[in-house]
Write a structure and sequence with these properties.
It is a single chain. Helix content is 22%, strand content 22%. It has an eight-stranded mixed beta sheet with strand order 1-2-3-4-9-10-11-14, with helices on both faces. A two-stranded antiparallel ribbon has the order 5-6. It has a two-stranded antiparallel sheet with strand order 7-8. A hairpin with a 2-residue loop joins β7 and β8.
Length: 307
C-alpha cells in the first residue's frame, strides 16, 4: 500500500503537490518515491490514524516518518511505537523515549513569525531571533508534554528522553552561522548571544572572539516585549530531557537513503539526569556541553556526516 494517493478529500497542499513531478529533482518524481521508501521502512512505527492525518498535516507526519526511518535504517536501532497514547517512539537499545515536534514559520501577520524568504537577488538578513523563538516554543511545548508522561508513569524516572525537532518546514530551515559558530537550535537551548570579534586596530587582525551571554530573546506582543528564556539546558527544571535532535530535512529536498540523518544537529543536555552516551546517534553534527547551573562551555563539534 502506498502512503501517497490521489484523494479528493486531502486538504494539505504539500500532500497534494508531492503527487506531482518536481522539475528541480532528478528524476522529477523523486520526492514522492522517497516518501514511499521511508514509509516502507517505518510504517509499523506510526499511529493508527497516520494514513489519514498525512493528508491534512503532511509536515508533522513526514517529520515522524523521517526520524523513525533514520533511527531504524541508518542507525540500526531497535525502535518501536508502544502506544498511540504515549511518546512517539521508544528505543530499547538505550532505554530512551522519543517525542517529535514540527516547527513552522507561524502566522504571516505576527511579528514573531519567520518572514518569507526575500525574492532571489534581493538582499535580506537572516531572521535569527524569530527562528530561535519558534525553536524555543517547540521545545517548551514538548517538554511540558513529556513531564505529563512522567507524572502518568509512562516514562520512568531513570529513562532517557529525546525531543526531536523538525524545522524543515520553516522558510529558514537550514541554520546560518559563521565558521566556528553554533546553529540556532543551540541558541534556543543555551544562552548564546551574538558573536563578537576583537580586532587589533593597528594590524586589523582578529585577536579573539567570544559569544555574548543571552539568557532570553524578546517576543513582541500588544502590551510590549516579553522575555522568552533560552537557557533551558542550564535549568534543572528540564534536566529530565536528555537531548534535542534537530532536523532540517523535508520531502521536497529528499535525502538519499544511505545519508539519512546527515542534516541532524544533536544537542546534549549537560545537566541531564539520564544522559545519552556521546556517539550513540552517529548522524550529522553532535554538540557536547560542559555546564553547571551557572556556566557552560561548548565543546568542539563531533561531525558524523560521513559516518
Amino acid at each position: 500500500m502506498n502512503i501517497i494517493e490521489n484523494d479528493s478529500n486531502a486538504t494539505d497542499l504539500t500532500y497534494i503537490n508531492i503527487q506531482k513531478d518536481l522539475d528541480w529533482l532528478d528524476p522529477p518524481d523523486l520526492a514522492r518515491r522517497r516518501v514511499e521508501e521511508l514509509y516502507k521502512i517505518a510504517a509499523d512505527l506510526l499511529d493508527k490514524k497516520f494514513n489519514q492525518q498525512i493528508k491534512h498535516d503532511f509536515a508533522a507526519c513526514y517529520s515522524e516518518l523521517y526520524f523513525a526511518a533514520v533511527f531504524r535504517h541508518r542507525l540500526n536501532l531497535n525502535i518501536s511505537h508502544p502506544s498511540d497514547k504515549g511518546p512517539d517512539f521508544y528505543i530499547s537499545d538505550i532505554d530512551c523515549w522519543v517525542e517529535v515536534t514540527t516547527v513552522r514559520d507561524g502566522q504571516p501577520d505576527n511579528l514573531n513569525s519567520v518572514p518569507p524568504k526575500a525574492p532571489l537577488g534581493e538582499v535580506s538578513s537572516y531572521p535569527e531571533l524569530q527562528v530561535i523563538l519558534r525553536l524555543a516554543s517547540g521545545f517548551y511545548d514538548k517538554a511540558r508534554k513529556i513531564a505529563n508522561y512522567k507524572k502518568a508513569g509512562i516514562i520512568m524516572p531513570d529513562q532517557k528522553v529525546i525531543i526531536c525537532i523538525s524545522g524543515g518546514w520553516m522558510s529558514e530551515r537550514i541554520p546560518m552561522r559563521p565558521v566556528g559558530g553554533y546553529p540556532q537550535i543551540a541558541k534556543a537551548l543555551l544562552p548564546i548571544g551574538d558573536l563578537v570579534y576583537w580586532i587589533n586596530k593597528d594590524s586589523n587582525e582578529i585577536t579573539n572572539k567570544e559569544y555574548k551571554y543571552r539568557p532570553d530573546v524578546k517576543k513582541v506582543s500588544r502590551d510590549g516585549e516579553h522575555a522568552i528564556t533560552t537557557d533551558f539546558f542550564l535549568n534543572p527544571e528540564y534536566s529530565y530531557i536528555s537531548g534535542v535532535l534537530y532536523s532540517y530535512a523535508n520531502a521536497s529536498n529528499p535525502v538519499e537513503l544511505k545519508k539519512l540523518g546527515c542534516d541532524f544537529f544533536l544537542m546534549h543536555n549537560p545537566i541531564a539526569e539520564n544522559p545519552i552516551e556521546p556517539g550513540t546517534l552517529r548522524c550529522g553534527q553532535e554538540y557536547r556541553v560542559d555546564a553547571d547551573t551557572t556556566r557552560f562551555t561548548m565543546l568542539p563539534v563531533v561531525n558524523h556526516e560521513d559516518s
